[in-house]
Amino acid sequence: SSSCPDGRKRRVCYYYDPGIANVDYGAHHVMVPRRVAMTHGLVTSYKLLPDMELLRTRPATEDELAGILTDDYRRLLRDLTPGTYRADTARRHHIGALSGDKRNDNPVIDGLWDYCARYAGGSLAAARALGSGKSDIAINWSGGMHHACSGEASGFCYVNDIVLAIRELLAAFPRVLYVDIDVHHGDGVEKYFAADGRVMTASFHQYGRGGKGGDTFFFPGTGSAEDVGEGAGKYRTLNVPMKAGMDDAGYRELFVPIMREVMGVFRPDAIVLQCGADSLSGDKLGEFNLSVRGHAECVRYLRSFNVPLLLLGGGGYTINHVASCWCYETAVAVGKEKEIPDDIPHHGYEHYYKDQGYKLHYGVTKVGRNAASTKEHMDNIRNEALKNVQNLHE
Ligand code: V1P
Ligand code: CA
Ligand code: ZN
Asked: How large is the average pLDDT for residues 368-379?
């Protein structure tokens, strides 16, 4: 049974497309789609599938994707292969040369269009399951590509499945809240709905680098607290910029009071939560210090409001940590996080978890936040965010 601490069972739909596991960004790239297959391996071996409806998805159609892409960019994505690549056209849409190039964010992937159609198809189907009232929580770990814009790729994201899903949700729900706990700013989603009063976006992210590079650029460089939206969407864009080193306690001190206020003031009819796992401790790109439980606390907290909830993936570059996290969050969705044992069951991918002692919960090594996150600094970020939300009352 999937009884829950708050006494209500949730109908959970889980979307998984095995066609994504073999997508290859190139040998030097940090984005590894196999992490979704690893997550699925854990979810299966922990026996969480019987508590959900497992749904295979169909790829999004060209017509469906046309709603969020410019004609130029859609044709490029559809027709682009390593063989047809032309530098002038591709670069206009921020797609770099071939996947072998080092540090090329958006390479020409083999089967690029099919990959985009599949991860977007999952998010679209998940949104439809919520919109029709068929499920309370819908999950697509291969989605969450928050940087993509209508005319160009950005930060490993080619099409914005989140925008597609939110547009679908708006057909069924008057107000949709988007929350982004990826370590990077959710710029693509924010930009798309900046002037739309029906959608509120809230991103928690690292702003500036840690260590000696405190004032230097951390991708994508946007998302300051002053960035609040415009027109009908004014104060419906919320940004919570944090310093490197943020830990569980500090994150919760910001996330809980800020989201409590957002829920009370905006009163969403549906929530989309982008669960980028690069905010975990030990990530290859992010410099936060969250444990799997600390990350999942965000899922647990938003789930407790009993509003239709869409859970999406996103970033996450230490792939064993990512799979642990998304498996644990799947358990949170079905209300079984207290029941799953820490020892990882045999399932064929267990060799990936050697460094974490074959345990689901790995040790967070650094304790305590970066010295820069003083109490005063934390109070400032929280108060600035709360002030922005309270402007919605007026
Ligand atoms: O910083 C950049 C480039 C430098 N240009 C001016 C932009 N790119 C970052 C992109 C990070 C994307 C994160 C995506 C997500 O939010 C959602 C899926 O997680 C970047 C970095 C970095 N350290 O910030 N790209 C790479 N590292 C990279 C590393 C190896 C191979 C290819 C790219
Ligand atoms: Ca974020
Ligand atoms: Zn990220």
From this structure: 83
What are residue 47's phi and psi, to 5 degrees?
Answer: 60, 40
Chain segment 244-283, per-residue pLDDT in tens? 999 999 999 999 999 999 999 999 999 999 999 999 999 9
Element containing residue 139 per DSSP (H, E): strand 137-140
Q: Which segments within 237-315 are labelled E, that is strand?
A: 237-242, 270-274, 309-312
Considering all CA atoms of the chain, what is the largest pairwise distance in Å, rounded to the nearest integer? 58
3-state SS class at 179: strand
Per-domain residue ranges for the chain?
12-390
Q: Which residues line ligand 1 (CB under 6 A)?
A: 28-30, 103, 105, 145-147, 155-157, 182, 184, 219, 276, 278, 285, 314-315
Q: What is the mean pLDDT of residues 299-310?
A: 98
**Nearest to 164, CA basis, from 267, 237, 69, 74:** 69
- Of all protein residues, whose CA lies closest to atom 22 belonging to ligand 1? 285
Residue nearest to atom 18 of ligand 1 (CA): 315
Neighbours of 357 (CB within 10 A): 12
* Domain range 12-390, CATH class: alpha beta
Phi, psi of 289 (to 5 degrees): -135, 40
The pLDDT, as a whole number, for residue 82 is 83
Q: Which ligand is nearest to the CA of 312?
A: 1
| Catalytic machinery residues | 147
> Among all chains, which residue has been given the structure tokens 């799953």?
340
Rounded to the nearest angstrom, the distance between the alpha carbon of 183 and the centre of ligand 3 is 5
Asked whether 277 and 316 are in contact (CB, 8 A), the reply is yes
Provide the 3-class DSSP secondary structure of residue 387. Answer: helix
C-alpha 117 – ligand 3 centre gap (Å): 21
User: Nearest Cα to 342, choosing from 325, 357, 360?
Assistant: 360
Over 216-232, what HEC string results? CCCCCCCCCCCCCCCHH
- Give me Rg for the CA atoms of the chain: 20
